Amino acid sequence: MSRVRVLLLNAALGPLDYRAPAGVDVPAGSAVVVPLGPRQELGVAWEPERLPANEIDEARLRPLLQVMDSPPLPAPLRRLIEWTSDYYLAPLGAVLRMALPSTSALGGARIVTEYRPTGVFPDRMTPQREQALERIVGRQGLIGELAAAAGVSDAVIRGLVKAGAIEAVEVSTDHPYPLPDPDFHVPALEPAQAEAAEALRASVRDRAFQPFLLDGVTGSGKTEVYFEAIAEALRQGRQTLVLLPEIALTEPFLQRFTARFGCEPVAWHSGLRQSQRRRAWRAIAQGEAKVVVGARSALFLPYPDLGLIAVDEAHETSFKQEDGVHYHARDVAVMRAKLEEVPVILASATPAIESRHQVAQGVYKELKLPERFGGAEMPAVEALNLVADPPPRGRWLAPRLVEELEKNLAAGEQSLLFLNRRGYAPLTLCRHCGHRFQCPNCTSWMVEHRFTARLACHHCGHVMPVPRMCPECHEEESLVACGPGVERIADEVAALFPDARTAVVTSDTIWSPAKAADFVAQMESGAVDIVIGTQLVTKGYHFPNLTLVGVVDADLGLSGGDLRAAERTFQQIRQVSGRAGRGEKPGRVFIQSHDPDAPVIDALVRGDVDGFYAAETDARREAAMPPFGRLAAIIVSSEKEADAKEAAARIGRAAPSVDNMIVLGPAPAPLAMLRGRHRLRLLVHASRSIPLQDIVREWLGALEWPRGVRVAVDVDPYSFL
Ligand code: ADP
Ligand code: ZN
What we know:
Layout lengths: L2 E6 L7 E4 L11 E6 L2 E8 L19 E2 L7 H13 L4 H8 L11 E7 L9 H9 L7 H8 L3 H9 L3 E7 L18 H16 L3 E7 L5 H14 L3 E5 L6 H12 L4 E3 L5 H12 L5 E4 L11 E6 L17 H12 L2 E6 L4 H8 L4 E5 L10 E6 L13 H12 L3 E5 L8 E4 L16 E3 L4 E3 L6 E3 L13 E4 L3 H11 L5 E4 L7 H12 L5 E4 L12 E6 L13 H13 L10 E6 L5 H8 L2 H15 L5 E10 L2 H13 L7 E14 L2 E11 L4 H10 L8 E6 L6
The chain binds adenosine-5'-diphosphate and zinc ion (ZN).
């Protein structure tokens, strides 16, 4: 029988049947090209019994156009795609797309021509040529990629090729990666580390599903320990996937990996050039890429022989994807490990309450590293009361913190000021008439960025120049910045310590692995005295000479008041505190707060991790909140306010009545307008025993709404915006 069921990458379509050419075998998982109307579409052959479809007549089947020359998607990945679609209520085609992000990789091996600078200067130099050569030092890529990096037209790059300043190189898309050597540099482990490492190695050898929570204080050597599990997977010849929460962390990871295994792992993130992406995808699919490190998108790649998954900084909320398919990479990683029948390691110094609960339930095995490596002490933590001992007017650093910064500078040690707010000031208003600058597309204030002299919306990216005059009352020079962002703190530091060398670290300044590498190099060489940063600096980094951490506003994260506000504040401050005193010198942490007696701050000062978790867990249990109960958010949006309201009301009226389940709303979402769309939210709160997805699927499936209305379901939501 030559009928083949095909799942298209198109989210709007269900599976369709096609006819395979006579004598051609199309195993499930094969990537295929099929006709769809007048177009050609890419899809994947699927087991028909797993994907019900309208069977059309054999005689009317259209033929498959092509079976791609790439390994079929492995069965466990096909099951993962089905599970993800089912659990997160996302179209199968949309999930499948995450497994095939590089459609060009599906062809055979190919030679592509890339270009790189030769170091020769052209006879005729123009400002554009000069700019191009300056910006592409050390780079290689397609003409268009180099042009984009240099900010010039393709023609300028072509001109430089003719002039001999740039040369062509042939690169095979299947050029092999070096093989990491498990015995390259084996560290001597401390007893607690050795014990944890042995448990992980044994589990890798077992080849069975087992989640581990590797819970170790910051600087305890969690990375060293899970590297031993990777070494074991390498000895078994199997693949490992390491997930990191941010691509900014890739660079330090690559360096440490190279020191341990003698070469870099294969990196997978959004910053790859097309040819790198293609090469990585093929090496992964062929099982030649043995260790892959990536952001959450690496989770759906077609590893044929996975032996281990590690999720570093597993508590990080950036593992939660907030657009397209709303999934949580940590949870999907555990599911993938289950389907692949391999161990999965969740490493964190501040595990999520959900993960700790799994340990309590006996599902995850806990491995503890209670002490820092090499005898380093945990830093001393002190709260600074902003009410009793406030900073001077218009300043944000309390006198005591300034004093400590001064001492640290004098001692030649590095300091870090943490404030989770990009830009100069979160709100700008007119002193004369009170006008506030709001984003035209969103319910949010425009944030001033002085470095770029712009007002920017952090939700939709809308930017405008800072006007000289108030648009409302036309008063000149009347605008005032309210509240601090990191840039404003940097100004304050510059005013206090004109000789100190500072670095501002946010996603505005560190937006690529290369930028992160620059920052690490500067810190390591001692070229920076004081870092002012957002959550980007709270994790992963290891700077032995950094001994002082100041948390500028510990109350900031608590104000939102969502389910995880206290937990997130605790994690963030504990992580950023963990940057202090990782070397031989002891660390000090100062937490500025208006309410230093709040339970979170108190727990941080006393280092009472277990007490904090116990209280938080009890509160969740009492309120039947996750992990003791379940939530799903339904976000209804439209450019037309009336349509959004009407659709949300219809959904609310149709809510099924089920025991142990309540539906809250519809109510305007906290961000009532986002990217020009009006938004309403319904929140479903149910007990664990209820088949929440089935109920929501049936409920929404029976309804219709006008064109232009979007209904998105967020299962296990993290963002309550
Ligand atoms: P964590 O991830 O738990 O914060 P790291 O793995 O970053 O801790 O370890 C902190 C520092 O201590 C790193 O520089 C690491 O290389 C070093 N380290 C940890 N364990 C060992 C060991 N057994 N031998 C040598 N260095 C170690
Ligand atoms: Zn906006």
